[in-house]
Design brief:
heterotrimer; A alpha+beta (about 130); B alpha/beta (about 500); C alpha/beta (about 475); A: about 130 residues; alpha+beta; 6-stranded antiparallel β-sheet; 3-stranded antiparallel β-sheet; 9 strands; about 20% helix; globular; B: about 500 residues; alpha/beta; 7-stranded mixed β-sheet; 4-stranded antiparallel β-sheet; about 35% helix
Chain lengths: ~130, ~500, ~475
């Protein structure tokens, strides 16, 4: 059973979302996603200051046998991205919810929060899909 | 293979400064005149020579001959690779395509009548076999044939002021090239599911088509190894919505002379001459992806193709096919591959073509039945196999923790090339097996014996499978290391 | 039955196992109304002897003209070992090396090929080949648009001194992805791209500039200046090169960088045919492509890498596959599935036999023969060289009359005299592109010169000679 921290929100495309005190949101891929992909060998994160819209592909994670786009859960501007992943993509496997974060986005004031799942809902979603 | 030396150094490691295969060098040009090369300005000339190997002719011959011995091939092993049609490549096809007059012909030299007559007859035979109106031999591989097909479909819709049609429908089990091709042609992809029998879900198809549908791309028999029963209904639905039907010829071997894509309602087909018409796979190419089209797409075929006017043959160009989607290659496509396919088809002849499908089906259905008797599970047991079929190792995976990949690797130890693994993605732990018509019953029986041995090993010593292969030049390779620490070229020591 | 081994006994036993009465029954899932009638348009079978006779007759009808055409496909000596080994069944009849353990021969050979192409081009990474030179340039243009992160543009600058067929192929293969291919003019006296022609694009956002060396006319471009200009404009440089010429000419990995800018082209591609592949009426050939390591994930086509097996022994496998269609599907770098494996096999053996010294010998001898050819032909009344730039092994000649009838008259004399540029470059007038490689002797060049002098005699009506 994969790890689903209760204090985060989730998408059906297996991203997690953390609301930071600064108002920014931190985005990564879930434990379930990293396990399904296998050993990650390459990660491409978006450039800082890039505009992203909710649902837009803005990062790529790649294992030996699979590659997957990561979609932004919110509309806004990229405030930071995790450059360490270029050197150590394995962080996404070993610590997907902390050291393996992908990007932080400054959401637009007008941007309505997309329909995100709670931890319980995401857990149910995985069970149904499984 | 056990008595072979199992490692061969890189050609660069055999190199020694100053050693040369001298007889291959051009003779010296008269010393009386200034060297043209020395008139090239200094700043455009190369400084240090490229670090290429320096070896004798025998060293090179021995090195590459040894490397060849590390390969499995049709000439040496049964090669039941599903979806790839690894049948015998007759030696005559190569010998006659390599006659010196054919090899020495420059592509821009005046139209060679003998060669073009062969190409024209090849076009005509392919028209007859596919039930299409026009054939172009220009595409250099199946994927380029697909590109040409979808590009023609877009050109057709554009010519009718219907350019908004950009949706390409593919079944979930489609080969990865189908969606990749659609993307290269600026189209979007809609995947529709298949039902439990491997047929297209007609309801999903009906819901998917609209005024934006450009085409549906299908193989038939499908990548699931079964014939799509309701192909006429599929054609009605797609044509009814204003879309076209694209036939991916990956599995043409299964129906050669039995049923023609044109008669099934398809508007365009690409053929893989390296599968159905037995041109060599060459370690991954060259292929040839001839396209055939019905009346709707005839004006748009890629150039060049061969025309005939009053017993003279010539290449048709932009002038002759003004609405063509254009050129796909610098010259005439993979002309020499097409010539090999021509020789093969002439040797098969009319009756031989039909027998291809018949005996490919006989071998596939026999092998499927024998493997079921050996205890393996067919993915679609209620269906006839076409020229290939799928075994799923779902149960074995649960019971013995062995995977389709483990079985594939163990087969190498037992002297068989592995079937296709993990394609189609829809079927868990699958092996896609295509024996082809050129294998004997005895060879199929030996393969079944090997699969029986593997079955026993699963039960008694599964570790032997998980750690296979044991007798190849290398054991399983570290793919993660290959990506994370890329070693993509030899470099001279600094 | 050609190539089908089944005896009557085999068929009976196999049908019995299947539980079918006849082979026809195996096709009972095909709707009856769809079954095909006999294939009348396919002739009856021929034996190997008969097909051999037919093909030999057709080959002899085509004959072997003395060839002076280049234009992207070049006649070079092919060492006997090249095809003797490439057509060994273990290379010829093997498939893509997906089962790495059973394909180490093909995989190691491709790794050696990639190393040789890196050596020739002075680039960091090469793929395992593409279909041909023209389609490789199309893939390079698409790759440049993906790779150039400092440009939003889909515009590629393509000089008219680049092989015009390549331009056509680029347009066919990229038009549905909305690339804008912008033609850049060449200097009429020099027959190459002057910096002035590029000034119009300064400050305009473009993804890449294509530089062909030597260019379509055989002339040598000022590659350092063009590279530095493009890099100064935040464009990538796509080099299109002749691999034989690279033994003699500055490799693209070393172009430019003179005024402190980035050194080297960014993507290098070209036609691999000169490396041991016969002319064969136009194919199969192979395209090569090399780039900087930083762009490797944007490069299309297969790549082989070295790695270790579970026991720590070195071995080779396909790698970086997540770029490709079988994994990325609609988001792949290209839909290409194959490489031109057999041709790469031939080219690798060719380069191993010739080495740097041999290849330089071939390049120098070809340049020499072309210089001799141009000297001999320009002495004929009504024939002159079109351009005064340094060249490699091709040249444009200007005639005082239309080229087509002259070529037809030469063909009557068994000579393929060159390529008429009327269709592609009408502004040059009666222009003829000629080429001589190391395969031509002084006697061959004399024969051409005598035939051309004869055809060009002022009084002679060449049409009457046909």
């Amino acid at each position: 059973m994969s790890n689903i921290p209760g204090d985060l929100h989730y998408t059906r495309s297996h991203e997690w979302v953390r609301r930071l005190p600064s108002g920014q949101v931190e985005v990564g891929i879930t434990d379930h996603a990293q396990e399904a992909l296998g050993d990650l060998v390459f990660v491409e994160v978006p450039q800082v200051k890039r505009r992203v819209t909710a649902g837009e592909a803005c990062a790529v994670v790649e294992s030996v046998k699979a590659a997957s786009d990561v979609y932004s859960p919110v509309t806004g501007q990229v405030a930071a991205s995790n450059d360490e992943l270029a050197r150590r993509p394995e962080l996404l496997n070993s610590d997907p919810y902390r050291a393996g974060w992908l990007m932080r986005v400054e959401p637009d004031a007008s941007s309505a929060a997309a329909a995100l799942l709670t931890a319980v809902e995401y857990g149910q979603f995985l069970e149904q899909a499984g | 293979m056990a008595d072979l030396k199992l490692r061969e150094p890189l050609i660069f490691e055999l190199s020694k400064p100053g050693r040369q295969a001298r007889s291959q060098f051009p003779p010296p040009v008269s010393a009386a005149e200034p060297a043209a090369a020395s008139e090239i300005p200094e700043h455009l000339r190369r400084g240090a020579p490229p670090p290429l190997p320096e070896v004798s002719e025998l060293q090179a011959v021995r090195h590459y001959t040894r490397l060849s011995q590390f390969n499995f091939s049709i000439d040496t092993h049964f090669y039941p690779l599903g979806s790839c049609t690894m049948k015998y490549n007759p030696k005559a096809c190569n010998s006659y395509a390599m006659l010196p007059e054919f090899l020495s012909r420059h592509p821009l030299a005046p139209d060679p009548q003998g060669f073009l007559e062969c190409m024209h007859e090849l076009q005509e035979m392919l028209k007859e076999i596919t039930g299409m109106q026009r054939v172009s031999l220009a595409p250099m591989a199946g994927a380029q044939g697909e590109f040409a097909g979808v590009a023609m479909i877009r050109a057709y819709h554009r010519s009718r002021n219907d350019a908004a049609r950009r949706q390409i429908i593919v079944p979930q089990a489609a080969h990865g090239t189908n969606p990749a091709t659609a993307a290269m042609c600026g189209c979007s992809v809609t995947e529709i599911p298949c039902d439990r029998n491997g047929d297209i879900d007609i309801e999903a198809l009906t819901a998917a088509v609209s005024g934006e549908t450009a085409a549906i791309m299908l193989t038939n028999p499908s990548t699931l190894g079964v014939f799509e029963h309701r192909i006429e209904e599929v054609a009605r639905i797609v044509h009814g919505a204003g879309g076209l039907l694209y036939y991916d010829g990956a599995n043409l071997n299964a129906i050669l002379g039995k049923v023609r894509p044109g008669d099934m309602g398809f508007d365009v087909i690409h053929m893989n001459l390296h599968k159905t018409f037995s041109t060599p796979h060459g370690g991954g190419g060259p292929g040839s992806g001839a396209v055939g089209v019905g009346p709707r797409l005839a004006p748009f075929v890629p150039i060049p193709l061969v025309g005939k006017v009053e017993e003279r043959y010539h290449w048709l160009t932009e002038r002759d096919v003004p609405h063509s989607i254009g050129r796909l290659s610098g010259f005439m496509g993979n002309a020499g591959v097409n010539l090999r396919a021509y020789v093969y088809m002439r040797m098969l002849g009319r009756e031989g073509m039909v027998r291809v499908a018949e005996f490919a089906a006989l071998n596939a259905n026999y092998l499927m039945k024998r493997l079921i008797q050996t205890g393996y599970e067919a993915a679609y047991p209620m269906r006839r196999a076409s020229h290939e079929f799928i075994i799923t190792l779902k149960q074995e995976n649960r019971r013995y923790q062995v995977t389709a990949m483990d079985v594939a690797k163990r087969l190498l130890d037992l002297g068989f090339h592995a079937p296709t693994t993990y394609f189609p993605l829809l079927v868990p732990e699958c092996l896609l097996i295509e024996p082809t018509e050129t294998e004997t019953k005895e060879e199929l029986d030996h393969f079944c014996d090997a699969m029986a041995v593997i079955r026993r090993e699963m039960e008694r010593e599964p570790e032997k499978l998980r750690s296979a292969p044991h007798t190849m030049p290398v054991r399983r390779l570290d793919d993660v290391r290959a990506v994370k620490q890329p070693d993509l070229a030899w470099k001279p020591a600094a | 039955m050609p190539f089908i081994p089944h005896t009557a006994d085999d068929i009976a036993r196999m049908l019995h196992v299947i539980g079918a009465q006849s082979i026809d029954e195996l096709f009972d899932e095909i709707p009856a109304g769809l079954k095909a009638a006999a294939l009348r348009g396919v002739p009856p079978a021929l034996s190997e002897m008969e097909v051999g006779r037919l093909l030999t007759e057709r080959a002899l009808r085509d004959g072997r003209p003395l060839n002076f055409i280049g234009a992207g496909a070049y006649e070079h000596h092919i060492p006997a070992p090249v095809w003797a080994i490439a057509t060994r069944g273990e290379f010829y009849s093997a498939y893509t090396p997906y089962q790495a353990e059973a394909s180490q021969g093909t995989l190691q050979l491709i790794y050696e090929y990639q190393s040789m192409m890196c050596a020739l081009t002075a680039m960091e990474v090469s793929n395992a080949s593409l279909y041909d030179g023209a389609s490789a340039l199309a893939e390079a243009c698409l790759m440049a648009v993906r790779a150039n992160r400092s440009s939003e543009s889909r515009r590629i600058l393509l000089p008219r001194a680049v092989n015009p067929t390549y331009g056509q192929v680029v347009r066919t293969l990229t038009c549905n992805q909305h690339l804008e291919i912008e033609a850049v003019n060449f200097d009429r006296r020099e027959g190459r791209v002057p910096l002035q022609a590029l000034q119009a694009y300064e400050g305009r956002d473009c993804a890449a500039l294509v530089v062909q060396q030597p260019n379509f006319f055989g002339n040598l471009e000022e590659v350092d200046r063009l590279t530095d200009w493009a890099h100064g404009q935040n464009m990538l440089v796509i080099a299109v090169v002749n691999p034989t010429a690279l033994a003699l000419l500055k490799p693209p990995g070393e172009w430019g960088g003179l005024s402190g800018g980035t050194r080297g082209a960014d993507i290098v591609c070209g036609e691999g045919q000169p490396l041991g592949v016969p002319l064969a009426s136009g194919g199969p050939y192979f395209g090569f492509m090399a780039t900087r390591m930083q762009y490797v994930r944007q490069m299309p086509g297969r790549i082989v890498g070295g790695t270790l097996d579970v026991e720590g022994r070195p071995g080779f496998s396909l790698t970086l596959q997540a770029r490709e269609q079988h994994i990325r599907r609609s988001k792949a770098t290209s839909n290409i599935c194959t490489n031109q494996g057999l041709l790469v096999t031939a080219a690798t053996i060719y380069l191993a036999l010739l080495g740097a010294a041999g290849l330089k010998g071939v390049a120098a001898a070809s340049a020499q023969r072309t210089a001799q050819l141009v000297r001999a032909l320009s002495q004929i009344d009504g024939v002159s060289a079109a351009f005064d730039s340094p060249r490699f092994h091709e040249a444009v000649l200007l005639l005082n009359r239309p080229v087509a009838p002259v070529l037809a008259a030469l063909a009557e004399r068994g000579i393929s005299g060159g390529l008429d540029l009327h269709a592609s470059h009408p502004e040059l007038g009666h222009a003829l592109l000629v080429c001589a490689t190391e395969t031509k002797t002084e006697a061959d060049i004399d024969a051409y010169a005598r035939a051309l002098a004869d055809v060009m005699q002022p009084a002679r009506d060449v049409r009457g000679a046909i």
